[in-house]
Known about the structure:
The chain is mainly α. The chain folds into two domains: 17-415, no CATH class; 580-649. The chain is 70% helix and 0% strand. It has helices at residues 3-22, 34-38, 50-57, 67-74, 85-114, 120-140, 145-149, 154-175, 181-202, 209-218, 222-226, 230-257, 269-288, 314-330, 336-348, 371-382, 388-415, 418-428, 433-445, 449-462, 467-480, 485-497, 502-517, 525-536, 539-542, 545-561, 565-578, 583-594, 598-606, 615-620, 623-648. It is globular. It starts with a helix and ends with a helix. The relative contact order is 0.07. The model has no long low-confidence stretch (mean pLDDT 91).
Amino acid sequence: MSARIFALLGLTAALLVCALLYWPAMHGPFLFDDFPNLAALDSIDHVSSWRDLGIYLSQPRSFPGRPVAMLSFLLQKSSWPSHPFPFRLINVSIHLLNGALVFALVRRVSHHWLSGRLTADSLEGRACLTACIAAAAWLLNPIQLSGVVLVVQRMTLLMAMFMLLGLLAYTRGLLAGQKPIWQRGAWMVLGLGVCMGLAFLSKENGILLPIYALVLDATLLRTDVQRLPSTLSWLRRLLIWPAVLFVLSYLLWTLFSEWEHTGTRDFTIGQRLLTEPRILLDYLGKIFLPRFGLYGLYHDGYPVSRSLFSPWSTLPALLTTIGALIAALASYRRWPLFALAVLWYLGGQLLESSTVMLELYFEHRNYMPLIGPVMALALIVARQPQGRQQRMLYMASCIWLMACCITTALSAGAYASEDRLALVWANTQPDSVRAQTYLAERLYKHRQLDATRQVLDKAIQLHPNTPSLAEDRVLVQCAQGDLTQNDLDKLIVLLRTARFDQSGLESIETLRAAATQGSCPALTSDAWLSITSALLSNPLYVNNRFATGYLHYQRHFWAVSQGDLNMAIHELEATYQNDPDANIPRLEAQYLASAHLYDQAVDVLSNTDYHRLPLLRRLLVDDRSINAADIAAISQMRKDERNARGETE
């Protein structure tokens, strides 16, 4: 059997095993960030024009809005929000495709790097073996599960797909020494130009593609870079260095601009930089020492490093990370495989694990960075001469892969059941507010109110300053019928000084529904209004424009339920001021027109400040023309009313 056929069989086996391991998780529910990000699918009923497409793509607030990934979700609109399976089927399919692309990239690079170290007879076999080991290790590692199963992380999957295609195109141009210069240049531009653009439009991390190419060039492909004709050498520099320098400049800018600003985070940028080395080592521990129960979405309870010695592991982790980076930079010629593993992994973590003030910990951040370490380790195994040491390495690799498969299978089985998932995450992440809240929500849904209250009370003891826990406890007390005014007073006092909690905002709408429906006598409409007023007096919420806009938007519903038009309009104006949305002025006009205040309704639509809308919205949608149609409709309503009045008079 030829080495190529053997390699294809090995890759096919790895892909089939991966599909089987992921199958239980494909039947699980939508989770966590799926809901706010995929809610854009509710913005339109169907796409019948470019305007409809623009409205859908402009739902994200930031530019450019990840349009490639958003378009992929649009193809499955009919399955939202009831049927996650089609979404996850696409995610797993992309993951399998990416595994095949990892195989192709590793095979090409290893074939080239091993060519001077092995005989021609064994070269193809060793290159294929390296690719099989790397692809299997990457596909089957349990840390990949959350990035694949969380539907919205298709953004990461598509980004990685275009990155891998880009590296394949770039290396084809770099290594094809017999091809004309223009062909080689075209492949390099396709890889580091077009594919990088598509990766970036899937997720912003796509801009790191030139860094991955630079790491390959500096380690395994250094000789080929030195042999490039001058024209291609300059083209390579133009394709790599501007992006690299832009990323580094952006990280430095965020470092200085955010140094004294914490925003809504409970850590500073300095504390984030102290914490991330511990997290990176934690990631690596999960990657190379697979154990069931460690993996999941909720890691918000991870302890922040407040100083070099708090916790004690901060300084050792920081020294280990810096030492590995310095050693890799100093030895990339002498120990290229070590340098490849370190520089690829750390380079891939540059945006999400350094100075950008994102949340501290997410496992899907390892999706692309993991390729470098597994490629380096696979090359170490494959280049060993035949003998006892080689057999031991093969045996160790097989045992490790089996451990990965078992852990992935157990973790995927948990994803299949929302109740089991809540129990696993709550038990393994006792410090995570999200994990405890998730378990409480599942218990509450099953009307296990005493158990729900016990979970919340225990979590409140650990996190007494967390709004979402206190608000959920009020809801449980409502259901049990023992909520008192004293409980509400304590909640209001807490909310005035509590830490910022995104989940706490989501509970506000649930509390409003309970108050307006009259299902909880103590939670009156006025009490709910006092709760929102408490949050609007909290500086951490006031300084967050999205949170302020959301609270004012919820308060406008209260005003509508009370028949208070002036307050409803005032709250909508405050909503637009803090979190501009094109539909807010139209909603104002609708209320005014329903009150027969046609001139005021037209005035609102005519004088809307469109410059306050997000850039993406202004580029993709002509809201003035939409408002013009609404103005015409309101004018017709006014005319019809006058005609009717004339007929009756």
